Amino acid sequence: MKQQIVVSGIGGQGVLFVTRILAEAAIEKGLEVLTSETHGMAMRGGTVISHIKVGPFTSPLIRTGQADIGLFLHAGNQEVHRGFLKPGGLIYMNAEKGGGGGSEAIDATRIAREHGSLVIANLVLLGFAVRQGRLFCDAATCEAVLKRISPVKQLETNLTGFRLG
Amino acid sequence: MVNHSEQRILMGNEAIGRGLVEEGCTLTAAYPGTPASEILSSVVAFAKETGAALHTEWSVNEKVACETALANSMAGRRSAVAMKQVGLNVAADPFTRATYLGVKGGFILIAADDPGPHSSQTEQDSRLFAHFAKAPVFDPSSPREAREMVALAFALSEKYEIPVILRPTTRVCHARQNVSCRTPAPREQKANFEKNPGRWVATPQFLTELHRLLNEKLDRIAKEAAFSPVLTPGDGAGPRICIVASGVAHAHAFELLDTLGPEGRIDLYQVRLAYPLHQPFIEEIRKRYDKILVLEETDAVIEMQLGDSLVCGRGSGDVPRQGELSPDIIEEILRKFLDLPAAPVVSAAKKGIRPSLCAGCGHRAAFYAIRDTFPAGIFPSDIGCYTLGMNFGAVDTCHCMGACIGQGAGFYHAYAAGGSDFPTIVVTIGDSTFFHAGIPGLINAVFQGARFILVILDNATTAMTGHQPTPQLGVRADGSEGRKIFIPDLVRACGVRHLREIDPYDIEAFTAALKEADAFIRSPEGDIAVLIAGHPCIVNRAAREAQAVFAISITDDCVGCRACIEDFECPAILFDEEQNRARIDQNRCIGCGVCVHVCPAGAIRAEGEKP
């Protein structure tokens, strides 16, 4: 199994948490994994991206045109990060509407807000993407990871978010 | 004891922290800075988890951290100090002498470089600094390797009694990988400082001899077979060419060669000890190859040591002399080196959204008042979240930690030299930066008779790097209680007579204090006026939940003048181009209510304070 995934968003949206879940899910499945994250000043509301490479890779970064899947927490980031996707690569994005042409949209922000916790929009999108069946991991693996790494007080909210997607 | 091993997904910085704990480090000191910040917090966490006994501290700056760790090493105990690359500039003084004097317990200085740079004021190469200071330097290519190099570095340091640098880069620090974690091996390390004035006091008469010994150590390390570069052989079919790479550039090249077909099957060497470069290797590859491509970040350190006309690299113009060596750039270099057709050119992606101060940040309120009160002022500032004040014209300079206070004095002397009126200079510095390097500058400015306003933006944390505590909070790195050191006490002790403490959320009071301060610095007996703008960082949930929350809306009085967008730049205020008016993004607004002061038309309304 070899899969390259980018997770794109804005500082504060929880890109790092989604990255962590996918990386832990790879370990759960006994796969090698390498990720690369954005830290520092960009986390203050700037554009951020994580790279996740599942399988026998050595470089933590994804080259232009090599990603199999892109998770876009901020739809506007497509103009910035779409170039990482390979021709035929799949995009799952958080957007009010849209989709088509290799991308699937879900209004994760609205769904998260309706459930009283905007911070779980990232998990709504992840849950949605996982259920499309194209990611290397399944929902059960992700939930197992969520149960392991979520803070106790946040666990129920996180699981709800993931299941809403 | 069973050496239990388990696979865990660790960030490079966590892998280094894990390595320090497992290898019996007894003291780790650090100052936070991207990309190195998570190293010390990982040491704290893993020490707690494994029951390892070691002293950890967020030191007040990198120089102090280095000196503290060096003395622990002089007492025969394994020690480490962690910082970002520019932190090594601050620690340069103790570190450069440490190579001459040597160490006792294994000593590792971790300097995390930031090619790009992503979050730094330079993209300097700490391996070049290691060369200058005459210290061996390891250059890891992955989190797993960074962890293994901790063990190698301690062993090398102890064998030669020499301080060793571990130089990860951003892409190693902030990569995650599965790393095997083991139980720390118990290791007896009682403090035992052996007095030796000729070494630990080393006056100039001793130094030539110490320098000779240091040079000899480096010569011997350069012959250590263990540090010979590691060869991944090609298929032997290619011409007499090879690649010598280090750090994450090696990781990129390794993967890329696999994708380039038969031409990619050439010899690839990984340099792990970048200085001193293995001497027999230098002689060997000159004989074996006609052309050598060197891939390293960020300067030509390996290339310089190879010193040969056979080398393709920065000297020959084959490798860019600045910026990060991303896999895309390395692919371009490799294709050219291997005479392969260039990859299709991809149109440059659009730039992303720039970072900005969070909605509700107290710094924004302070900056707004400063710029509004002194439209013709000069605003030196410093390093932290608050550098983002540049987005709306409230930050004119940012240089290095603590520089803003010296700059404030310098600007004053420059304008005052003409004998004419001087512009109001408002210097802004964060609380952690003030502790780090602000105090000597303030003493100097007061003593030398400078006149400016110093605003200490006190958000009660080191926010940018992940909320490390400052000495004022009274909490140490491991969570234990320390004696609180209060900023107002320090300011008074620096000789400052005009000091006010105000919450900048109260823009009217803060503006009045700025005007009063300006009158003071211009009065016959005036010098430096200090305002402490105290408002806790709202990223801290407890702080956010403790403050009043207003329902913010924009009324029909909005005339679309954009003052709130351009002069205040709150991420929760958006501009609706179709309607030609501002609107509140309720998803991001935290209801602080500060923006009410900003609208010239009075169209921003704050209602119904919710508890």
Describe this entry's structure for a reader.
The complex is a heterodimer of chains A (165) and B (611). Chain A has 165 residues and is α/β, with parallel strands linked by helices. Chain A has one domain (3-164): Pyruvate-ferredoxin oxidoreductase, PFOR, domain III (Pyruvate-ferredoxin Oxidoreductase, domain 3, 3-Layer(aba) Sandwich), CATH 3.40.920.10. Chain A is built from 6 helices and 6 strands. Chain A has helices spanning 15-28, 78-81, 108-114, 121-131, 139-149, 155-164; strands spanning 3-10, 33-36, 47-54, 67-72, 85-94, 103-106. Chain A has a 6-stranded mixed β-sheet with strand order 2-3-1-4-5-6. In chain A, strand 4, helix 2 (78-81) and strand 5 form a beta-alpha-beta unit. In chain A, helix 3 packs across helix 4 and helix 4 crosses helix 6. Chain A is globular and about 40 Å long. The model of chain A has no long low-confidence stretch (mean pLDDT 94). By secondary structure, chain B is of the alpha/beta class. Chain B folds into 4 domains: 5-221, Thiamin diphosphate (ThDP)-binding fold, Pyr/PP domains (Rossmann fold); 226-337, Rossmann fold, CATH 3.40.50; 362-542, 3-Layer(aba) Sandwich (Rossmann fold), CATH 3.40.50.970; 548-610, Alpha-Beta Plaits, CATH 3.30.70.20. Chain B is built from 21 helices and 24 strands. Chain B has a 7-stranded mixed β-sheet with strand order 3-2-4-5-7-6-12, sandwiched between helices. Chain B has a 5-stranded mixed β-sheet with strand order 9-11-10-13-14. In chain B, strand 13, helix 13 and strand 14 (311-312) form a beta-alpha-beta unit. In chain B, helix 1 (12-22) crosses helix 2 (38-50) and helix 3 (62-74) packs parallel to helix 5. The longest helix of chain B is centred in the first third of the chain and has 18 residues, at 143-160. The relative contact order of chain B is 0.08. The model of chain B has no long low-confidence stretch (mean pLDDT 95). Chains A and B meet through helix 1, strand 2 and helix 2 of A and strand 1, strand 8, helix 11 and helix 14 of B.
